[in-house]
Every structure is written in structure tokens, then in C-alpha cells.
């Protein structure tokens, strides 16, 4: 009997104890973005009991103490507390408001800051912990991207279309949460891929296996399927500088860490099975492109295991209110650490109060890591490739292959986007936005445009009207048909251009283009390979045309990718040139025969080697996204064949160039181009190299901005073009200027060239009213042409002003020794 009573007593006691346990589960998110906040401290008020949120912001905390509230604390956010029911299981979610007043404070220690010792060891061990130390690695990647419209202006929210949308979608506020801000989703994608890296030589490759894309205005997935994979979501804090949205951000574990950051050692505890030090970090100068946040460094090998890094609104960055990167890393069997989970949130600011903002969310999860098993070099031929049938909307597949299940909110987002796409006004708005961006308006299987072909007005053609169109990938993924025509009411002539393109292969890229054109052109555009569909080309048809001519051209071009970073173009061109100005030249110097027209027939070969240049396939075009670290080398050779199709000249043209976007850490970024070329043969100056001058008040990056139009002509030349942006280096430290986020600029343009007497004397100078010759161009002598510039960009976030000084050839007639140039450009 005593035993029974004893057992019953124990049961009653344990039941009583269980009744006193308080368990709280939930999720912590940002109120502004709805994004999870990982690694936040969740604590029962007045106790030491609590939990830390996981990478997805989830937590489960329990205590046996008598409590009435629970609170969340995290760097950069206002502490928040909510009431709890003691002794019960319950779910409580938190939406945290950003602390705009104080993001942290620097603690001054009597001795050495204890965080410094940990940082020195972390820097010492970077080489073995950085995954770039591996000979090779690969992994399966799951990528999820979402774009939302936020900060919707009140006048827009009250419009009938928005009222209809919010009514159909059953309240827009649910996307961000109870305490969050309303978001309107416009794009959501998922991708499964296999990502590969090889160290020596350095190659990267990604196989896009499956994608699911849903977006307002998204009509195909050829481009989006390539850019939503892991290749464009690589963040390695072991690099001294991280290139994010075209800007260079200094890492909190950069080699020069003490120059840019202050640190606090906050805590030490176990994270999973690793004992870690928690360090908070802050930029020393709030205007710098640096982060504040928290990172966890392992005690065993001083490796970065977790990081939560945010770029503050005060940083010298345009159109971005906040950017946050959160990353979990995992140790490989070779010792180095690979990214396991990465989340990036970019909150784009409103341009003004009348426009909405944009919120971009990126999430990458990796698994099935394989290290030190490099593939053959041929395997890395293309940085990004797509499997057949890459677009897949089978939910059963995604349910099985997703690394993490979709949240209920994300399920709602897919439904909301599908609903939005059904609104005709939304479709029309997205089509008009794309029309403004790329010049084409899609109608079925045809793109109408570009709009630059619709209208023009100049002194040769008078008022010109026209029309253009091209076929789309919906018409064919092998063939492209396109062109435009126009009629000038002043010269009463038709102009037209037609072309056909055939894509033989996409891996490796092979394409043939055939074109015929009859148009009015200007000599000053001959040295520039301008896109005839581009805005600048279209604007050149307005006003007074300088040295215009009528051109009839047949052209064929075959492009092929020959290897990793190596491509070639083989072309043939025949042109008939008829001057519409006073241009004349000697067809025969011996008998003084004169003409103002000529024919040329050319074959050409262009080679380009850019080791780490990245490309995407945009429908039936191959588009370069630029290089990452290495320069790009170009070689162009042209042979003009005398007598072929009544061609009038025999000549050879050679041109070599190297171009590089050089990142110089805290010193800024330089754009560099070095070119050299020669024309071998006797030809009129229209076929020589004529450097482009600029007599307008607008800055032109491919022109010499204090050189007059057609001031010089050369048949041999070397030129160096450099433009350097100091970002915020020089002006961030000036109290009165740093709030304006101005950025200093500097430039140098140098040209050295010669022209032989035969080419110089072949063209005939026109005469003025007194019978005196007016030189068509000047000759460069032993001196180089030099102009230097300096200025300020980011004025009101869109304007730059540069002052230019002409250093040489000041004795030329009508030259400007000094000038100011303005430019409108949107830079982050």
C-alpha cells in the first residue's frame, strides 16, 4: 500500500511540475520585409531561459520559472516583448522594427580588445578555411528568388485598379505579417542546379536542372532560368572585397579588418556541435561600403560558421535603403568551409514619394557536397548551361526536390502572382515598362520596334517616319527575322534594313547573321560599332547631320565560341559609299581623277579572349555580363580586297585592345582600355581611324571630350582611356559633404598617332568663299593628344559634372582648353 501511495505521489508531483513548464514557439521576422531574422536571442523576461532562432527565424523556448512575458533582442533592431501565459504551450510570432537611432556602440577597453585576439587567429586561418583553397568542389543548389513591390504610394493604393487587386487577393497585408508592412509580390522563382568550381585554372560552371518561374510580365524563361541559379548568388566573406550589385563591399574578416571595423566580443556558446565566439562588428565610418552585424567564429579552427551582415542606410549607396546577407557555413571533409544556407534581402528605396519601392529576397541552400574531384577543362566551357525541359511546373517534383518546404506565405505569393497576371491593366503596364527599357513592344510572336526607328528629323531627310519589327523565340528558337524601313519627306527616299539570323548551336554558341541595309549615315559614327537599335544611334538622326553619306551595305557574319572565354567572329562586308556633303578624293593621284563615291569589299576576323567573362542566352541572343577579375583581349583584322565586286581599294586594318574593370579596394574602381592599330594601304580619310570629338556639353565615354569633330585623322595609333571613380574615398571624410554622398571622379585620355603623306594627300580639302583650303583634319606629330578630367558624380544621385583640361595641341584653331561636361547616369 505504501508503494502505491508513493508512486501516486510521484505521479502527482510530476504532473504538477509539467503543468509549470511554459513553452513558446514561433518565428521572428523583420516588420519591413517579412524576412526571417536568424540567430536572434529569445529570452523569457527576468530569466536566463530562452533560445536562439534558427536560420529561418524559428524558435522554441521553455522555462519552469513563473513568467509573464518573453522578449527578442538582436543587433540593429528594437527590443520587443510580448506577454505569455505561464505554464502553457503557445505560439507567438515577432515582427521586429529596425533601430534607426542606434545600431550599436563601441566599447573602449582598458587593455586590448578581447575580440582582436580572435580576429587575428581568424585572419591567420583564412587560407585553410576558405573554400577557394580546395582543388575543386561541387554541390546541389536550391535557389529561391522573390521580388515584391513595397512602400506603395497612397495615391496609387486608392486607385481603382489597386482596390480591385486588394479585394481579389483578400488583403495585401497578410504577406508581411500582423505587424508588418504591405507587400505586393510580382515575381517568385525556384531553381535546382548543380554548381561546380575548379581552382587551377579557376573555372566555374552551373547546370540548371529545373526551374519554376512565376512573375508579372514574364513571358518566357530563357533569360530568367539562367540568372535565378546559384552562379549569381555567390557570397564569400573570406574575400577581402565582395562584389554585390556592382559595388565593392569590404568584408568584416578582410586582411585589413582594423582599418574599416570595430569589434565587440559578446558571448561564447555552442552553435550546433561547434563552440563559437560571437563577435559584433561595426564600420568605423558610416559612409563606407561596409557592414554591421554579428558573426560566429569557431574555437577549434577559427573558421567563420555564421554571419549576419547588414549595410546601413547611411552607406554611400544609391536607391538601396538596406541590404542584408545571412549565411550558414558547413565544414567539408577536407577542412575548408562551404556555404550551406544563404539569404540576401535588398530593400530598394523609392526614387521619390510618387513611386513605390522594391524588395528583393534571395535564398540559396546547398547539399550533397563533393570536394577535390575536378572535372576536365572542357566541362567548364560555359559558365551556365540549361538542361532540356528546364522549365517544370510539376508540384510533385518540387515537393520532393525542394531543400526546404515553401511557407504558407510563399504558397500565397504564387497564387497572388497568378491572379495579378489576369488583370489587363497590369499586363499592359509591364509591357510598356519593357518597351521603355529595351525599345520593343511584344505582340504575339513579334516584337514591334525599336522606337528609335519610328521618327526622326534632320537637314538631309527632313521629317522621317518609319517602322521596325523582329521575330521572337516564340516564332522560332533557331531563326530570327527582323528589320526596319523609313521614308524621308525631305529627300523623298526610302531607307531600309533587313536581316536574318540562324542559331546553329547554343552549347557552344554558334550563330550566322545576314544583313542588307540602305541608309543615311555620318562619318563620325564609322569608328564606333553602335547598335542600330540603340537610343544613341536613334538620336543621331536629329538635327544637322555632320558629313553625311548614303550607304548601301551587304554583310554576313558568323560567330562561334571556340573555348572557355574564347570566341571568334568571321565576317564579309560590301559597301557602296556616296557622299552627301563636299567630300572628294583622288581616285588616281597621277591623272588627278576625282570622285565622291567608292565601293569597298572586306573580309574580317575578330578574336576575343576573356577568361572569366560570363554570358547568358537572352532568347536568340548571347549577352555578355562582363568579366569578374581578368582583362579581356581583342584582336581585329580586316582585309579590303581591291577589284572584288568593283571594290576600289586594297588595304589591311589591324587593331589590338585590352580592357579591364580594375577594382582597387578602398581606392575605388577604374575602367581601363589600351588600344593600338594601323591601316596599311592608301585610302581616303573616311577609311582611316578618326578619333571622335565631342563639342556638346554632355559627357560621352567613347569620345575625346575637348577634341573637335574630325579634328585628327590617323593611320597608326595608340590610345589609353582611363576613368576612375573614387567611390566615397575622398569625400566621405568631409563633414559638410559626406551627407550628400558625393563621389570624386578622375579621367585621362591619351592618343598618339601618325598619318603618312599618301593618305593625308588623297583627300581633297574644300575651299572657303575666298578660295582658301579648309583642312578636313589635322595631323598628330610627335606629341600625344592629352586631356585630363576630374569631377564629382552622384549629385542628386543621378548627375555628374566633370572639368576637362586639354594639355596638348593648344595651337590648333578654335580649340577649347577647358570645358565642363555633364552626364545623367543611374549608379548604385
Can you summarize this structure?
13% of the residues lie in helices and 44% in strands.
What fraction of residues sit in β-strands? Answer: 35-45%
Distance between the termini: 81 Å
- Gross morphology: elongated
Question: Stretches where pLDDT falls below 50 for ≥5 residues?
Answer: 102-106, 168-175
Explain this structure to me?
- The termini are far apart.
- A hairpin with a 4-residue loop joins strand 31 (about 585-590) and strand 32.
- This protein has an 18-stranded antiparallel sheet that branches. It has an 11-stranded mixed sheet with strand order 14-15-16-17-18-19-20-9-10-11-21, sandwiched between helices. Strands 1, 4, 7 and 8 form a 4-stranded mixed sheet that branches.
- The longest helix has 18 residues, at about 1-20.
- The chain is elongated.
- The protein has about 850 residues and is mainly β.
Amino acid at each position: 500500500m505504501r508503494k502505491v501511495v508513493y508512486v501516486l505521489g510521484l505521479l502527482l508531483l510530476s504532473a504538477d511540475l509539467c503543468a509549470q513548464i511554459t513553452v513558446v514557439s514561433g518565428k521572428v521576422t523583420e516588420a519591413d520585409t517579412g524576412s526571417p531574422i536568424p540567430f536572434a536571442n529569445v529570452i523569457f523576461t527576468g530569466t536566463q531561459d530562452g533560445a536562439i532562432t534558427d536560420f529561418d527565424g524559428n524558435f522554441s523556448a521553455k522555462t519552469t520559472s513563473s513568467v509573464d512575458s518573453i522578449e527578442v533582442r538582436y543587433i540593429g533592431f528594437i527590443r520587443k516583448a510580448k506577454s505569455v501565459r505561464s505554464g502553457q504551450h503557445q505560439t507567438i510570432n515577432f515582427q521586429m522594427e529596425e533601430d534607426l537611432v542606434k545600431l550599436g556602440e563601441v566599447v573602449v577597453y582598458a587593455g586590448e580588445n578581447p575580440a582582436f585576439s580572435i580576429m587575428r587567429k581568424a585572419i591567420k586561418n583564412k587560407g585553410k578555411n576558405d573554400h577557394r583553397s580546395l582543388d575543386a568542389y561541387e554541390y546541389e543548389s536550391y535557389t529561391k528568388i522573390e521580388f515584391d513591390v513595397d512602400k506603395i504610394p497612397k495615391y496609387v493604393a486608392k486607385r481603382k485598379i489597386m482596390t480591385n487587386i486588394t479585394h481579389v487577393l483578400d488583403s495585401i497585408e497578410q504577406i508581411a505579417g500582423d505587424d508588418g508592412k504591405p507587400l505586393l509580390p510580382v515575381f517568385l522563382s525556384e531553381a535546382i542546379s548543380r554548381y561546380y568550381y575548379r581552382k587551377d585554372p579557376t573555372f566555374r560552371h552551373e547546370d540548371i536542372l529545373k526551374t519554376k518561374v512565376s512573375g508579372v510580365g514574364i513571358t518566357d524563361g530563357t533569360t530568367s532560368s539562367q540568372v535565378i541559379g546559384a552562379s549569381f548568388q555567390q557570397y564569400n566573406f573570406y574575400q577581402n572585397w565582395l562584389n554585390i550589385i556592382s559595388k565593392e563591399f569590404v568584408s568584416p574578416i578582410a586582411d585589413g579588418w582594423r582599418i574599416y571595423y570595430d569589434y565587440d566580443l559578446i558571448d561564447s556558446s555552442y552553435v550546433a556541435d561547434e563552440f563559437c565566439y560571437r563577435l559584433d562588428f561595426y564600420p568605423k565610418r558610416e559612409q563606407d561600403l561596409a557592414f554591421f552585424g554579428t558573426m560566429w567564429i569557431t574555437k577549434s579552427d577559427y573558421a567563420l560558421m555564421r554571419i549576419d551582415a547588414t549595410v546601413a542606410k547611411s552607406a554611400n549607396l544609391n536607391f538601396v535603403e538596406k541590404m542584408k546577407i545571412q549565411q550558414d557555413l558547413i565544414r567539408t571533409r577536407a577542412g575548408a568551409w562551404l556555404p550551406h544556407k544563404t539569404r540576401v534581402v535588398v530593400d530598394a528605396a523609392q526614387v521619390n514619394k510618387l513611386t513605390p519601392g522594391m524588395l528583393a529576397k534571395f535564398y540559396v541552400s546547398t547539399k550533397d557536397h563533393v570536394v577535390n574531384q575536378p572535372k576536365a577543362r572542357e566541362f567548364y566551357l560555359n559558365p551556365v548551361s540549361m538542361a532540356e525541359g528546364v522549365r517544370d511546373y510539376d508540384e510533385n517534383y518540387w515537393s520532393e526536390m525542394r531543400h526546404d518546404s515553401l511557407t504558407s506565405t510563399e504558397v500565397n505569393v504564387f497564387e497572388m502572382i497568378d491572379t495579378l497576371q489576369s488583370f489587363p491593366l497590369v499586363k499592359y503596364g509591364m509591357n510598356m515598362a519593357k518597351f521603355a527599357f529595351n525599345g520593343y513592344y511584344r505582340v504575339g510572336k513579334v516584337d514591334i520596334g525599336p522606337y528609335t526607328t519610328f521618327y526622326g528629323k534632320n537637314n538631309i531627310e527632313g521629317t522621317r517616319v518609319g517602322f521596325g519589327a523582329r521575330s521572337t523565340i516564340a516564332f522560332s528558337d533557331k531563326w530570327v527575322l527582323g528589320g526596319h524601313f523609313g521614308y524621308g519627306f525631305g529627300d523623298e527616299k526610302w531607307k531600309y534594313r533587313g536581316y536574318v539570323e540562324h542559331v546553329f548551336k547554343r552549347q557552344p554558341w554558334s550563330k550566322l547573321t545576314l544583313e542588307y541595309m540602305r541608309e543615311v549615315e555620318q562619318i563620325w559614327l564609322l569608328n564606333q560599332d553602335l547598335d542600330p537599335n540603340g537610343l544613341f544611334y536613334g538620336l543621331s538622326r536629329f538635327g544637322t547631320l555632320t558629313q553625311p553619306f548614303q550607304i548601301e551595305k551587304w554583310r554576313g557574319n558568323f560567330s562561334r565560341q571556340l573555348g572557355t572565354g574564347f570566341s571568334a567572329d568571321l565576317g564579309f562586308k560590301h559597301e557602296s559609299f556616296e557622299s552627301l556633303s563636299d567630300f572628294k578624293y583622288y581616285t588616281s593621284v597621277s591623272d588627278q581623277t576625282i570622285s565622291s563615291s567608292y565601293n569597298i569589299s572586306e573580309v574580317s576576323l575578330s578574336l576575343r579572349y576573356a577568361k572569366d567573362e560570363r554570358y547568358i542566352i537572352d532568347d536568340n541572343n548571347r549577352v555578355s555580363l562582363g568579366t569578374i577579375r581578368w582583362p579581356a583581349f581583342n584582336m581585329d583584322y580586316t582585309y579590303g580586297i581591291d577589284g572584288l565586286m568593283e571594290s576600289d581599294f586594297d588595304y589591311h586594318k589591324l587593331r589590338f585592345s585590352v580592357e579591364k574593370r580594375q577594382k582597387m579596394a578602398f581606392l575605388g574602381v577604374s575602367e581601363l582600355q589600351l588600344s593600338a592599330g594601323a591601316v596599311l594601304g592608301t585610302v581616303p580619310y573616311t577609311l582611316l581611324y578618326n578619333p571622335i570629338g565631342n563639342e556638346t556639353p554632355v559627357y560621352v565615354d567613347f569620345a575625346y571630350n575637348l577634341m573637335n569633330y574630325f579634328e585628327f585623322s590617323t593611320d597608326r595609333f595608340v590610345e589609353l582611356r582611363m576613368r576612375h571613380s573614387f567611390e566615397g574615398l575622398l569625400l566621405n571624410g568631409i563633414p559638410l559633404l559626406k551627407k550628400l554622398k558625393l563621389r570624386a571622379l578622375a579621367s585621362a585620355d591619351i592618343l598618339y598617332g601618325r598619318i603618312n603623306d599618301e593618305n593625308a594627300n588623297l583627300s581633297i580639302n574644300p575651299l572657303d568663299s575666298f578660295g582658301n583650303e579648309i583642312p578636313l583634319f589635322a595631323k598628330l606629330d610627335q606629341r600625344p593628344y592629352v586631356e585630363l578630367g576630374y569631377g564629382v558624380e552622384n549629385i542628386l544621385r543621378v548627375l555628374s559634372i566633370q572639368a576637362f583640361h586639354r594639355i596638348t595641341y593648344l595651337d590648333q584653331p578654335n580649340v577649347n582648353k577647358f570645358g565642363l561636361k555633364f552626364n545623367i547616369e543611374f549608379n548604385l
